[in-house]
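Recap slide: TonB-dependent receptor plug domain-containing protein, sequence and predicted structure.
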Amino acid sequence: MKVTIPKPCHENWAAMTPEEKGRFCQVCSKSVRDFTNASDQEIIDDLSQNPNICANFRVDQLDRNLSYSFLNSLFAKFAVGFVLTSGGLVAAQTQSQPHHPVKANAITKVTGEIVVAKVPKKPVKIDKNSPFILGKIASTGVDRPDAPIYVLNGKIITENTFYKINPDTIEKMKVLKGKHATSKYGAKAKNGAVIITLKGKK
């Protein structure tokens, strides 16, 4: 997904009334969602549910492909009720890590919350003094070169159709990777195949 703002809004962000997820614009009588601290995944999730919103973005968040975690989305949506197989067992060898003794002056108590940060492949330089861009969003779908194929009850479906499936209607879901996927579905399954069987269908 790529986020663009064809007609940026010229209202003053600081003059808007603060709200839970952003600010309220008195001029437009609309809520403006603040995505300046949001991850790419949060932006994708929010825009998928409501593509016609006004929002505040950092300049570096616009006009680029947003990073989308297919596996995180898959496991979040279908957390229970599916079987994940890769066509066999894989043996893994591990190397033992060298033991490093703890220094006597090491901190023994740490308080706070764990924060998981996604590090971009290329560092993004953010100019804190540059203006933010406000406006109505136009999001466009981007064909993901790493997308698997989706097979629903024996028929190949689109990724959009896959995400519209009600998780409660799924009886079984199976993921094929590598040779197992290509041997069954050919070259179009080079990135894997997600096979879904609905309840009451065989």
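Residues 1-68+133-142 form one domain.
The first strand starts at residue 2 and ends at 4.
(End of recap.)
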